[in-house]
Every structure is written in C-alpha cells, then in structure tokens.
Amino acid sequence: MFDLSGQVALITGSSRGIGLAAARALGLQGATVIINGRDASSLARARDYLAAEGIDTLVLPFDITNIDQSIGAVDTVLKTVGKIDIFFSNAGIQHREKLLDFPLSEFERVVFANLTAQWALGRHVAAGMHEQGYGRIIFTGSITALLGRREVTAYTAAKAAMHGIVRQWATELSASGITVNAIAPGYIKTELTTRLWTDPEFTAWLENRVPMKKWGEPDDVASTLVFLAARESRYITGQVVVVDGGLSSSM
C-alpha cells in the first residue's frame, strides 16, 4: 500500500523542516521528488541528504512569492519531466507582532506569501493535473486557523482562507480525478518555530496543554502527507487533517 513508484512530487519549501521530511517520506515510497527553495546551498544539502537515502531527486529553485518565476519553473518541469502527480504546497513565512502594532505592510506580505502565491501556483499545477486526469494537491494549513493565537494575525488569516480554498477547490476539481486536502500542523519543531521551542516557558505551556505532552516532529506531518498523496486516499477530498497531538480536541 501507498506505493508511489512512477509518480512525480513537487514540494515547495523543501530544503528543511516539514518540507524536507515530506520529500524523504514520498521518496522512500518510490516517488521522484522535486525539491524547492530560494537558497541554492540549502537545496544542494537537501539533495545530497535525499540522494544518500537512494531517493530520485530533482532541484527546482524559485521564490514562491515571485509568481511569474514559480509558474515558469513548473512549466520547465512539465516540459522536461512530463507531469506532476503530487503537489505539496508547503512554503510559507511568518511575522509575529501584537495585533495593535502589526504593520499593514507585514500583513500584506504574509498573506501574499501564504495565500495568494499558493493559490496562483496551485492553480497552475492543477491545470496540468486536469489534463492528465489525476492529481493530489495538499496544502499546509495551520492549527491557528482553528484556534486563535496571539501575535500571528496575518498568518491566521491566510491559513483560514487556505482551509476554505481546500473545500472550494475540491468542489471544482474532483471530477478531474484530483483530490485537494490540507494538513494543519500543531506545534511542530522546525526552524519556523525556533523562537517558540527555544523558549522554556512556552515549551512548558505546550507540554501542559497538548495531551501527548510534547512537540510534534516533521515526520509526524510527513507520514500524514504520504497517505493523502497515495492512490488509496482517492475518496478523501476537501478535508483539513489536523496533526497536533490532540491540542485542538482538549480544553
């Protein structure tokens, strides 16, 4: 089960953290993985890491916030590789500041990166999947779209809208053999959350609040991704799968 041999997966923001764990998980199931990021040296390290695991890896550097560049990169893949079967839209940014001090410019920047750019690139990938009559689109959502959290107003707004897009796209794309889902991670220990997991006070709060009493790891998200990317999940679409150690289910 969950054999991805012969399939091509594009993972944005995959030079580290959840994205890299996702590339490894998909690759170990047989997929050819296309990793993406903005920094060439980080991508090279990620490629070498995956190659050491015997994973067929291609490198596709682009900045998701440059829509013309990202669409051009996908077109290059479609011309050279021929298809994209799995798209994990994972790249994102964060800005933490109190609501009443939050600059409009930062709100617009975060929403553009985490919503508008994801929508534009995802729609372009979906067009290719529509032509081939098959595809798996998975977005990275967030627990903050379900439960409020101070100082992340722009991120929360973007991810809540992304959850809505998942349901709306599933409605439009299902007839083309495309499923659209999202994974909403809770608190996962990555570089994006370094400020939090290096804070002893926050970690103490989290261990008290999360029923499993611990931080999540990137592999916890990656294993869920494999399921949603596989043919076996063919009747699951329009869903947000929460991976949070029970945080959202416990008062």
Automatic annotation (TrEMBL):
Protein name, as recorded: SDR family oxidoreductase
Keywords, sorted A to Z: Oxidoreductase
PROSITE patterns named among the record's database cross-references: ADH_SHORT
Pfam families named among the record's database cross-references: adh_short_C2
Protein's UniProt keywords contain Cell membrane: no
Organism this protein belongs to: Pollutimonas nitritireducens
Family stated for the protein in its record: Belongs to the short-chain dehydrogenases/reductases (SDR) family.
InterPro entries xref list: KR_dom (IPR057326), NAD(P)-bd_dom_sf (IPR036291), Sc_DH/Rdtase_CS (IPR020904), SDR_fam (IPR002347)
UniProt-recorded Gene Ontology molecular function terms: oxidoreductase activity
Record domain Ketoreductase: where: 7-186
